Amino acid sequence: MSDATLTSPAVEPVVQPEPPRPHDAGSLISMRNIWKTYEMGSEKVHALHGVSFDIPKGEYIAIIGPSGSGKSTLMNLIGCLDTPSQGEYWLNAKNVSEMDDDELARIRNQEVGFVFQTFNLLARATALHNVELPLIYGGVSSAQRHEMAKKALAAVDLTDRMMHRPNELSGGQRQRVAIARALVNHPSILLADEPTGALDSRTSMEIMDLFERLHSEGNTIIVVTHEPDVAARAHRVVSIRDGLIEKDEKSR
Amino acid sequence: MKFIETLKLAIAAIWAHKLRSALTLLGMIIGVTAFVVVVSLIQGFNRYIDEKIAGIGSKSFTVQRFNFEDFKDLDSIAAAQRRNKELTLDDLEYLRARATLIDKIGAKARASRSLVKRESKFAEDVPVDGSMAVIAEIDNTNIAEGRFFTESENDAAMRVAFIGMDVANALFPAGASTAIGQEISIAGLPYRVIGIAEAKGTVFGIPQDNFITLPLKTYGNNFGGFTRNRLLYFQATSKTDDTFVDAVDEARFLLRARRRLKAEEKDNFGIVTPDAITGFRDRLLGPTYIVAIAVPGIALLVGAIVIMNIMLVSVTERTKEIGVRKSLGARQMDILKQFLVEAVTLSAIGGGIGVLLAWIIGTILTAIFFPTYLSIGAILFTVFVSGGIGVAAGVFPAWKAARLDPIEALRSD
Prior knowledge:
The complex is a heterodimer. By secondary structure, chain A is an alpha/beta fold. Chain A has helices at residues 2-6, 71-78, 101-111, 127-137, 142-155, 171-183, 201-216, 228-232, and strands spanning 29-40, 43-55, 60-64, 86-91, 94-95, 112-115, 189-193, 220-225, 236-241, 244-250. A six-stranded mixed β-sheet of chain A has the order 6-7-8-3-9-10, sandwiched between helices. In chain A, a hairpin with a 2-residue loop joins β9 (236-241) and β10. In chain A, α6 (171-183) runs parallel beside α7 (201-216). Chain A is globular. Chain B is α+β, with helices and mostly antiparallel strands. In chain B, 57% of the residues lie in helices and 17% in strands. In chain B, α1 crosses α12, α2 (18-56) packs across α12 and α2 runs antiparallel to α13 (376-402). The mean pLDDT of chain B is 89. The chains are: A alpha/beta, B alpha+beta. At the A-B interface, α3 and α4 of A face α1, α11, α12 and α14 of B.
């Protein structure tokens, strides 16, 4: 909620929202005039002022912005952890904006793979079990789960670390386990929140290289960051400021 | 999410905090143990009495000087002592001659405590009583060695003794079987041992095998008349089971007629039937049972509160984990089940350990003090109750966990 508190309701939008178009059926993600409003006591605080954009399948996109810009709010909406106050959000041809908690949980399970800054692995579980978690909630049978999780770990070159717990792994290895966990269900999008924020620069490079490889294999990757180096690796950069899209540019 | 996954998760979480789980369960274990021990004592006591009644034959009754009701307070004891005449052998003959529904009837006299000796061995304060030969049949007395005395030995007032196993062991260290035919001295007079009763162990810490039974007439001759502490009482059986109640009524009316009681007067004697014994037991112990079960119940309540408390701590501690699980697709029901199953598992483990401890304590109690009995029903009930306590203690923390906002939960440390 830090974004919301820092966004004053008095501030005039820097850029007027473009008039909403109907959602693009060809896009993987289609956001139309998204508003997110928080009630802070009697005051209403707008974290997002009518954001609209599309992300086609297979894109590698970075969302950047200073803290308090509405960047985290946008990420939570994209990741289906939250629903917009107004507007429509279509993810993989499903209207997510109207869903209840359990439907959102299902979408998160099937369509979204999260990668967090602090990895968020379960400390007591092995790498393999951590990767299996989304499959458990997806109701996949135990044998099939094992196979899929092993494959996902192999894809991030961690076959020999499967039975290790997070505290027996380096930071880069942990993040690779997290990436394997995010991808194990073959989600529509890989949503990374400051994925290199807790890593040294050399390991950060490794992780970004991995993202690039995953992108070349056809995954749709959304990285939320405030680090220009990380954003520069993406093929499209969306800048958020004061709850609005300030810039949206293809870099390559 | 399948139940088996949830259960695995719960066990892993409990195992991850072994010491904490163990301390959490302590209250539960103490509560369940106390509860089950009390229940098994009560069940054991009830069974003991039932077996006792079955042993003496459910169709035998006792005629004695006082009624149970006479003992309810000091005034009624005093009144009964004035009103109720001692039973005599003439009363017995009167009943024997007139009762048509009684099969066997015989008299016993209450015990006196005596010093018993054999050479250098002796036993102090052994209860010595007198009995007619027919009593052994009415009582279904089980004989380990030798035999009970006969009616003619009674009539001849022979100095023969039927002794309990404790007495035999005390006087004949070489083995109870060597006692038969040997001479022992009771209150200074010589008697010949003719039989030893089968061992019965102890009840409420009171040994059941420390006694000597003499022929009634011998007892009367050598210990003094059947008065004061040597009161006579009669034991009788009915001819058939169906006429048992009638036989009891017949005996009552005969005695009332003999004592010329008017219709409105109370009996000035007591008749004790198996129903009267169980009825008396239930009246006497009913309130005790309630208290005995309520006190461990409070321990169980405390155990439940401890479990709820630790589950709340656990939810707070694992807020981040809950956030991660939700972000990976766990629904509210998945999280609710995870914590609820954890609480129930914790509680059921406590219940299981409690039952096990209670069973061990019960076994020890049975060996040294009093027969306990733990029925399958009581075990199932306890497991059910501890599971229920787990649900009651876990539902609020689990609901709190399930309702956490994933964004807030992910942000927590």
